[in-house]
């Protein structure tokens, strides 16, 4: 994986880190909703003992920048720069692969359905703090697992059958249906609580 940090960004970030009175303070590039239209990345302060052992390390002048190997395909080729502006400055993170790319029509069905769920269905679910993850496709049925505010939500069944399934079957007529494989009893913060 390759992440480029401009000299101006290195200097700016070193100065920010130096203002904190913490030994062995570093930065980690974090990714949120990778491979989707609402993907974002940002920098987080971290101490070395907080970094997963499999993370990539990019040594800078007085600190290191870490990135998870799980995010490699989204962060490879990323560029971190700093521009002076009239009001101070602007740190920019550009990651061309962050939002992923639409699979070709001849890509495996799993990849195409996964991209569709991430790009077409999850942005609506994200408004309620939730998401859906493709678990499997079996005999023409797509099995998903809800997470976040959708896990344990009393409206998950209606969301699945009245909105998500209709859109999915319109985009993939070869499929038979959409099934919920979520254990909703584990939901910690559902958007709509079920009635007892």
SS content category = alpha/beta
- Written as H for each helix and E for each strand, in order along the chain, the element string is EHEEEEHEEHEEHE
N→C terminal distance: 50 Å
- CATH topology (fold) name of the largest domain: Hypothetical Protein Aq_1857, Chain: A
Using only C-alpha atoms, the radius of gyration works out to 20 Å
Strand content: 25-35%
Instruction: Please outline the major beta sheet.
Output: 4 strands, mixed
How many helices? The count is 4
CATH homologous superfamily grouping of the largest domain: HesB-like domain
How helix-rich are the residues, as a percent range? 25-40%
What's the number of domains? 2
Q: CATH class of the largest domain, please?
A: Mainly Beta
Low-confidence stretches: none
User: What is the global morphology?
Assistant: elongated
Task: Describe what this molecule looks like in 3D.
This protein has 196 residues and is of the alpha/beta class. It folds into two domains: 3-94, HesB-like domain (Hypothetical Protein Aq_1857, Chain: A, Sandwich), CATH 2.60.300.12; 109-186, Fe-S cluster assembly (FSCA) (GMP Synthetase, Chain A, domain 3). Helix content is 26%, strand content 32%. The protein contains four helices and ten strands, in the order E-H-E-E-E-E-H-E-E-H-E-E-H-E. The protein has helices at 7-18, 72-75, 109-126, 156-171; strands spanning 3-5, 25-32, 40-47, 56-59, 64-67, 78-85, 88-94, 130-138, 141-148, 177-180. The strands form three sheets. It has a four-stranded mixed beta sheet. It has a three-stranded mixed beta sheet with strand order 1-6-7. Strands 8-9-10 form a three-stranded mixed beta sheet. A hairpin with a 4-residue loop joins strand 4 and strand 5. Helix 3 (109-126) crosses helix 4. The longest helix is centred in the middle third of the chain and has 18 residues, at 109-126. The protein is elongated. The mean pLDDT is 86.
């Amino acid at each position: 994986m390759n992440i480029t940090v401009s000299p101006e960004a290195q200097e700016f970030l070193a100065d920010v880190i130096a203002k904190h009175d913490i030994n062995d303070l570093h930065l980690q590039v974090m990714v949120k909703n990778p491979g989707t239209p609402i993907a974002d990345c940002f920098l987080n302060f971290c101490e070395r003992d907080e970094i997963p052992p499999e993370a990539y390390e990019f040594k800078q002048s007085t600190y290191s920048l870490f990135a998870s190997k799980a995010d490699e395909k989204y962060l490879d080729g990323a560029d971190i720069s700093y521009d002076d502006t009239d009001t101070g400055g602007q740190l920019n993170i550009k990651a061309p692969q962050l939002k992923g790319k639409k699979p070709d029509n001849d890509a495996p069905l799993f990849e195409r359905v996964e991209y569709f769920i991430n790009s077409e269905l999850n942005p609506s679910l994200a408004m309620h703090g939730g998401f859906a993850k493709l678990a499997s496709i079996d005999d023409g049925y797509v099995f998903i697992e809800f997470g976040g505010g959708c896990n344990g939500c009393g409206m998950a069944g209606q969301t699945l059958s009245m909105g998500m399934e209709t859109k999915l079957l319109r985009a993939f007529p070869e499929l038979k249906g959409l099934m919920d494989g979520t254990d909703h009893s584990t939901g910690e913060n559902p958007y709509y609580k079920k009635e007892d």
